[in-house]
Amino acid sequence: MSATYEVRGNIAVITLNNPPVNGLGLETRKAAAEGIAKAEDDATVKAVVITGAGKAFSGGADIREFNSPKALTEPTLHSLIAVVENCTKPVVAAIHSVCMGGGLELALGCHYRVASPGAKIALPEVKLGLLPGAGGTQRLPRALGVEPALNMIVSGEPVNSELLAQVPGQQLFQKIVDGDLMEGAIAFAQDVADKRPLPKVRELKARHGNPDAYFQFARNMVGGMSKNFPAPLRCLEAVAASVTKKFEDGMKAEREGFLALMQTPESKALRHAFFAERAASKIGDVPEDTPVRKIEKVAVIGAGTMGGGISMNFLNAGIPVVILETKQEALDRGIATIKKNYEAQVKKGKLKEDKYQQRMALLSTTLNYADIGSADLVIEAVFEELGVKESVFKQLDEVMKPGAILASNTSTLDLNKIANFTKRPQDVVGLHFFSPANVMKLLEVVRGEKTAKDVLATVMQLAKKIKKTAVVSGVCDGFIGNRMIEQYSRQAGFLLDEGASPQQVDKAAEKFGFAMGPFRMGDLAGNDIGWAIRKRRAQERPNMHYSKTADKLCELGRFGQKTGAGWYDYQAGKRDAIPSPVVAELLEKHRADLGIKAREISDEEIVHRLVFALVNEAAHLLEEGIAQRASDVDMVYLTGYGFPLWRGGPMCYADTVGLFNVVQAMKRFAKNPLDDAKFWEPAPLIKRLVAEGKSFS
């Protein structure tokens, strides 16, 4: 039973009880409907209160039932809402903590609603590329008012209950209960027990003084802000129907909109990302009940850009941090940067002054390794060179207390070698933050061959606390993200050899939806970083070839924005990428030297060579066990590399195109004499999936 029934005096109380957020799964819907029937049949019951156990009223649909027959088995959410709405006794929703999606739609089907202050109220379906499908677009405008309801539905963002209660003329909440919610709800239910007729939100009018002008204005605004996402405009049209149509006709319009959106690739991609994020937090051989270590104090080695950004994540979560550096000047610079970042947030109104002071009070510094020994977790963020890491980890091994977790922020180096610099390799893990570390959501958790399971469980839990999306990677050069991006960058270089310009490649990638094309990205990160990797590759993997254009660029000292010149030219103090005649000349000469005649290259070819290079390399990663699942790869690229959210990540995009078609494209690319035919041999996993008619997901 996932809802309980009890009678308190003359009031029946139905408590949704389906942890963690009382999702409205089939068993919960059945139990709630049965509770209403019991109350109807009990002559001593005068009214009903519906509430939620634990830390939520209801978070909406039970995501465990998505895409399963249970989601459509009666009573559906529509049927449950009809049972509640048609109850002959008053039904009061007692809302606390979280009331979202189907939970709010259920509450809107009740005759009355009372709420605790601070309850988060939302219809977040738009974030899954959908619209509220159980009457939310029709009832919320009637209960709250057209404009505030449209804002909530189109944004999907939660609003506190007490703020909504202040909206003029609203009938969403009849009362905000400051004290004990159940006592207040039962008292309210007793007060209204004999009032008739029972009020129904569906019988209210959704009114607006000038609906035609308002909705046209809203269409322009919403359309401009959501060009790659069809759901917001569909939400708007459903809300408009609440004003112009009868309730039943509005419900029909809502249903049509919901079913149409379910079929869009954008909604499929957003739903894929939603489930992918939840799947990424699970590690196949690490049970969910694995005990975790306490992390009450963190040490960070290095006060540079990464060290400072990493430290801010923990300060933001209220965890004390001590930063260690070798020189006082470096410490001073690092602290000044942290202060500057926080002060910018204060200035923009994103952070209150007292919060800023609290965070800075948690930060301390030292020049002495002995001072960090009591930390529960230490993260090194020093220069990316194995000898430097060796020196740091040998010192950490000496000073850190037993049971402390020793983490490296390395982006490419062998974590197993780093772990073996210590006598406790089981305590060593990779925590690869992405720059800027205080902003980027992605955290690659690198699992060494000896990393203990409780260490993994601890850092995965900690990632949630510091609001990161953690994805586990095995050990290889570049882990998941950087190993894949190398192939993407190689293709970008080959495209230049064949006749494309940096701006054409970037524009095609950005039109596809990448936040930034490969050459603008190189200029931002620093082209010298890729140069160093290629020099290392020449020693380690002499058979891997690259376009020589990037090396020639670096030989001119054009490292990107930091030098004012890279693939593009930059004006002092500005980040605008200006096409460079120097680069155009360099490319022309390079092609002439190789005897290459530039050819026309379509945007589609550019995009598919870049993206399918990611896909093929990722398939090798999956085969090797470096990545656990294809959706983990998608999370890496959605949260760390600017892949367009509405396309769901490279693996989701490949599934959308169809793996058979991906393989056909790879065969065409392999015939290009200037490309790497060996690389375009489809990975064994892709061949197997195509042969079996399957996809990555």
From TrEMBL:
Signal peptide: none
InterPro entries: 3-OHacyl-CoA_DH_NAD-bd (IPR006176), 3HC_DH_C (IPR006108), 6-PGluconate_DH-like_C_sf (IPR008927), ClpP/crotonase-like_dom_sf (IPR029045), Enoyl-CoA_hydra/iso (IPR001753), NAD(P)-bd_dom_sf (IPR036291)
Ranges for domain 3-hydroxyacyl-CoA dehydrogenase NAD binding: 297-473
Keyword Oxidoreductase belongs to the record: yes
Pfam families attached to this UniProt entry: 3HCDH, 3HCDH_N, ECH_1
UniProt name for this protein: 3-hydroxyacyl-CoA dehydrogenase NAD-binding domain-containing protein
CDD domains: crotonase-like
Main location: other
Domain 3-hydroxyacyl-CoA dehydrogenase C-terminal stretches: 478-570, 606-694
Keywords: Fatty acid metabolism, Isomerase, Lipid degradation, Lipid metabolism, Lyase, Multifunctional enzyme, NAD, Oxidoreductase, Peroxisome
Subcellular location as annotated: Peroxisome
Lyase listed as a keyword: yes
Source species, domain of life: Bacteria
Biological pathway: Lipid metabolism; fatty acid beta-oxidation
Catalytic activity: a (3S)-3-hydroxyacyl-CoA + NAD(+) = a 3-oxoacyl-CoA + NADH + H(+)
